[in-house]
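Please, structure for the following, as tokens.
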Amino acid sequence: MPADNARPNILFAIADDASHCSAYGHTFVTTPHFDRVAREGVLFTNAFTTNPKCAPSRASILTGRHTWQNRESCLHWNYWPEDLPVYPDLLEEAGYHVGYTGKGWAPGDWKRCGRKRNPAGVHYNKQKLTPPAGSKISSNDYAGNFEDFLAARPDGAPFYFWYGCHEPHRHYIPGEGISHGKKMADVTEVPPYWPQEDAIRSDMLDYAFEIEWFDRQLGKMLAKLDELGELDNTLVVVTSDNGAPFPRVKGQMYDDDFRLPFAAMWPRGIKRGRRVDDLISFTDIAPTFLEAAGVLKTTGADFANTIPGRSLFDVFSAEGSGMVTTERTRAYMGRERHDMGREGDLGYPVRCIRTPQHLYVRNFALDRWPAGNPETNYTNCDSSPTKTRILELHDQGKDHYWQLSFGKRPQEELYDIEADPYCVENLAQKEEFAELKQSLWRELQAKLHETDDPRIFGNGDIFESYEYIVDAPHSWANYLKKRWEKQRY
């Protein structure tokens, strides 16, 4: 039965490691259903994750908090903190039918703290399909599981559904994009931090093919809601958790990783056909959904008062395109431990501030390798043909691309996003930018103090004390175990 029209349904679609959609002008990927959401709603050009890796990014979505406020869940392959509240629980308490398919909060262990289910909700993963031949597409029938979820809905209840696609997370079968109709000529631009070679273009097409799979399942879900007559009263939000699984993107602190596709439509609640440049954060998602559901006025009030995120309803109701509010001019990002493969399982702490024009990056451990140690093959960068090619060139003494992706970094980085969108030219050491750099660092420090970041108070070691979950694939213990087994045999 349809939900009470006073409260909208909510469909949240999140890809795994996607930086690109065709609504932004990317020619090598075609995403008609994301583009529909953008066309019939609002397309955001400056939407930022809080942390450029799966689990910590998803944690900020669920809690509405900056990554350094999420304790253990600001890390990768960690435990969910015992008393950290999440908005799906509040929606359920308010009468919403809540569920997810595919990837919820992950990778990590949410059971140890006593939770009975994934923080994303009740799982619906029974329906399976046969993936396209010659691909690594998941067998999860996302759209089929969405239908199962809808069939289980109590009469009259509004729903909240998290569609967590596993794509385009690696691995891919090399050439799967071209074998499924993608064309090399569609790749009109290769980022300047990768070799300008066909092997990289083909890798980009494999990635694009899997984004298109995510989009295709989204289209089936929108069609189902159309069929049921419920799309008009469904708030649809589509995004990704972090950037593309390539060197210098996923897991790293540059614009191509934490500035992500983001579109929202709700025919009854969002003014359509707009392209908005305001800076929004993943901390804003939780309060947006709670406001849509009317929960902020009831059980969600205490939750909202303890989080920095702000509902996006000011943007939804605004007129026109461009900068439509006066306050959304800053975004903040951070990072601690990802897949480091480093002795002692030490992380790589970073904090960032982004303005409409500039990105300021503060690195706190200059002696460490930002993408993981060389002896563990830079484990904070997924294996790929692009990574292999960069390392081959490095072995030949050609270090330009290696330095950009894997080399150690200075304490401060400053980029002019308008002039240098790929964040290649560090302006931090140029005298003419000294005042701007100092101003942004002061502003970032103030925000970190305001939000009780242990790192800025000299207590950053607490992030190193949180243990990896058992058998995390890139822990130092697992590296030593594999090295010992190799030597043994």
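Residues 9-316 form a domain with the Alkaline Phosphatase, subunit A fold (CATH 3.40.720.10). The mean pLDDT is 94.
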